[in-house]
Design brief:
mainly alpha, globular, 543 residues, single chain, 69% helix
Length: 543
């Protein structure tokens, strides 16, 4: 018998589709054919993306616009329009899916039609050639699904897709690439999408030893780990995967994530005062970047990609002529990701705060979260935090960004302001209560407080736990030595009680990795455990 939650989810999905199909005036025959494509083919509409991931709260901006920006970056930097590019493929699938869900059906149809036609004539490299049937399958099944929606072709799917390789005939490698594409696409829908992506990436790696799948797995694994504990030491499984990637790949692009992993290990060791280990892994990270540049063998397209990923940390490894040409190309692209990259490049390496502020302000105008934080940081370099609209920007961000984790970050910087820049007991306790009230695990709240980084200059880098200790001392002082009326006193004491419970948590004891794959289940129908304890025990007890 089906689980009650499964039935509820299924009914919800049916309700959405039925409403859409009713609006489009689709008859029972077409609806049956659409269901058949959903169930018997690997179209993007077969994966229940929206139902499994929910609303995407990590981006204020339209996901479609974000994808378009990424596609423009690939177009400008790659320069090989006739060659298959996996990133371009999955991004165009996401664009098609988002257009469809926004009821831009004709535009969605034209988008996927363009993908199908491109696949018919494009050049596949040696690695992707073996997966071409799977790519065709996804694209054509999606194409026919939208075509049926628009009543462009109401023939039976079997006839429409007669030249498409059927799922039952897929070999293990082709099953793997389907899972890899799913993993890439689900990562566009964080945070639940990251957990699902990790499942599919694991399944892809089981089906094939393709280095690209290991690359995708490392990306998904890192996202899941960092969500719960931003500065947590990567696990042995990640380190082992990185070693395998280093020893098997000849693609310089694959090494970038290895370099990033080693840099994370260096940072984690630094936070624990393990300076020898920290230096070791920072050097390894640097070495891997040099190795990737060597593997690129002066291929300008490869070098441009490497620069896109590393110019913030390692621009000095590239010849000035290539670096300058790359920066010029980036400047021509309208993308918040590019604005972030250029902003940080000018901030960290050129120390050109004017240009940094310009690019970050463009990203901020596009509602890019990280750009906005870095814009505040640049402003703080130019003037004290209490002399410009520091609090106004953060409060606006709080109202605009609904994701609890992002709100934690915003509230953390507000709390730092009231601890280091302006003494205001009532505001301190109000924002601390808001921080504790966020609908997210208390362990994540504590982790943010432990590994805090200030946007304004404190004359030093905060050590782990330093701000947490300062906050505790100040809050304790406020609770017992400030004058509160009876109502305020009850709220303040309750807030302090809940804050104390968070401090007593041992974040190392919490297992955040809920992504174990059931390897006995069908590779197509992996069940995803999305149950989440939205209210932790300490929150409940204090409510």
């Amino acid at each position: 018998m089906a689980d009650k939650n499964d039935l509820t989810d299924a009914m919800g999905a049916l309700s959405v589709d039925d409403t859409r199909w009713k609006e489009l005036g689709l008859d029972d025959n077409i609806r049956t054919q659409l269901r058949k494509i959903e169930n018997d083919y690997e179209s993007i509409f077969s994966w229940n993306i929206k139902r499994l991931t929910g609303a995407n709260q990590n981006l204020m901006t339209n996901l479609f616009e974000n994808v378009r920006g990424r596609l423009e970056i690939i177009t400008v930097l790659d320069g090989e329009d006739d060659k298959f590019n996996l990133a371009r493929f999955y991004l165009r699938l996401v664009a098609c899916y988002e257009l469809y869900n926004n009821k831009s059906y004709k535009e969605s149809y034209l988008e996927i039609e363009s993908v199908v036609k491109f696949l018919e004539t494009c050049k596949f490299d040696e690695s992707n050639e073996q997966y071409s049937d799977a790519y065709h399958h996804i694209a054509r099944a999606t194409y026919k699904y939208i075509g049926l929606t628009l009543k462009i072709d109401s023939e039976k799917p079997e006839k429409l897709l007669k030249d498409v390789k059927r799922i039952k005939h897929f070999n293990e490698a082709e099953k793997g690439v389907i899972c890899a594409v799913k993993a890439n696409i689900f990562m566009k829908y964080p945070q639940r999408g990251n957990n699902i992506a990790l499942k599919f990436a694991e399944q892809a790696c089981i089906s094939s030893t393709e280095p690209e799948w290991i690359n995708i797995w490392l990306k998904a694994k890192g996202r899941v780990r960092r969500y719960s504990e931003p500065f947590k030491m990567p696990g042995d499984d990640e380190i082992d995967a990185a070693k395998i990637l280093c020893s098997t790949t000849t693609n310089p692009k694959h090494l970038i994530i290895v370099s990033e992993l080693y840099k994370e290990i260096g940072l984690a060791n630094k936070s624990m005062n393990s300076h020898i280990e920290s230096t070791k892994f920072y050097k390894l990270s640097s070495y891997i970047v040099k190795k990737s540049i060597k593997l690129a063998n002066d291929d300008i397209n490869q070098l441009n990609y490497l620069l896109l990923q590393t110019c913030i940390d390692y621009p000095y490894y590239f010849p000035n002529s290539i670096l300058n040409n790359f920066i010029t190309k980036l400047t021509s692209i309208k993308s918040s990701f590019v604005d972030k990259t250029l902003g940080l490049y000018y901030l960290r390496h050129k120390k050109d705060y004017g240009k940094a502020k310009h690019h970050l302000s463009l990203g901020m105008a596009a509602d890019h979260f990280y750009c906005t934080l870095q814009f505040i940081k640049v402003e703080c370099l130019l003037q004290p935090a209490n002399t410009f609209n520091y609090m106004q920007i953060l409060n606006t961000m709080y109202n605009d960004f609904l994701n609890p984790k992002r709100r934690l970050t915003i509230l953390l910087h507000i709390l730092m302001y009231f601890n280091y820049c302006e003494k205001n007991p009532k505001e301190t306790m109000r924002y601390l209560k808001l921080y504790i009230d966020q609908d997210i695990e208390d362990t994540i709240k504590k982790s943010h407080l432990i590994f805090s980084r200030s946007l304004f200059d404190l004359g030093r880098v905060l050590k782990p736990n330093e701000f947490l200790n300062v906050l505790f001392v100040n809050v304790k002082e406020l609770v017992y030595n400030n004058k509160w009326d009876e109502k305020e006193k009850n709220t303040v004491e309750n807030t302090f009680y809940r804050f104390n419970k968070i401090l007593q948590l041992n974040i190392q004891d919490n297992n955040f990795d809920k992504t174990a794959m059931n390897k006995n289940e069908s590779w197509r129908k992996q069940r995803v455990d999305l149950s989440e304890n939205k209210s932790n025990e300490s929150h409940q007890s204090a409510s």
